[in-house]
Write a structure and sequence with these properties.
With 182 residues, the protein is an alpha/beta fold. It has two domains: 9-47, no CATH class; 53-173, no CATH class. It is 42% helix and 15% strand. The chain has six helices and seven strands; from the N terminus they run ααββββααβαββα. The strands form two sheets. The protein has a five-stranded mixed sheet. A hairpin with a 2-residue loop joins strand 3 and strand 4. The chain is elongated, with a radius of gyration of 31 Å. The protein starts with 8 loop residues before the first helix and ends with a helix.
Length: 182
């Protein structure tokens, strides 16, 4: 259009502003959901524990280990400063266990044999072969670092006599000695 004046800056600004108001969108929740998912995963990783050490007795202090392998799910026998627990259930006091003259602690053996028999029944009900039973008959022993070796030996012997095929001793991982070169 010859002779028409071009719009001024003020007119252009008003037109742009009116168009922006028409195109105004509501709050996009998608990016906020992504952010919340990341925060949730971070919190779960921060507060979760690995292996079966999540429910140990509060008075239990584990020795340190430099083994890098993680524990899977197994039966758990925790020997704290005062009490012995099998999978969250109190079995006996540590004084009773230390007072035993036998290598096998009888009250503990009864509890462990019941658990082994239960695992054998489960295996037979689902048709597992005897060779596959090895994966079911695992026990992790969490022993306070201040106990005598004789108690540790008795507990391990009791677990073996009860029918457990794989026995592990738990310890707190200490990988710093390799990082510092000591």
């Amino acid at each position: 259009m010859p002779g028409a004046q071009s719009p001024t800056k003020a007119t252009k600004f008003k037109l742009h502003h009116l168009r922006a108001e028409e195109e105004h969108e509501s709050l996009r929740i998608t990016s906020m959901m992504d952010m919340m998912t990341i925060i949730l995963v971070f919190l779960l990783k921060t507060f979760s524990t690995q292996g079966d050490l999540s429910a140990t007795e509060a008075t239990l202090v584990l020795p340190e280990s430099d083994n890098e392998n993680e524990a899977g799910f197994v039966d758990r026998l925790a020997i704290g400063q005062d009490q012995i627990f099998f999978n969250e259930d109190r079995v006996m006091s540590t004084m009773e266990a230390q007072g035993s003259d036998d290598l096998v602690i009888k009250p503990l053996q009864v509890v462990l044999e019941e658990a082994v028999e239960q695992q054998r029944n489960i295996a037979s009900n689902i048709g597992e072969e005897e060779e596959e039973l090895t994966d079911r008959l695992k026990i992790m022993i969490l022993l306070d670092e201040n106990h005598l070796f004789s108690l540790a030996k008795s507990v391990v012997s009791t677990a073996a006599a009860s029918g457990y095929l794989s026995i592990s001793l738990a310890a707190t991982q200490n990988l710093q000695k390799y990082a510092t070169g000591e």
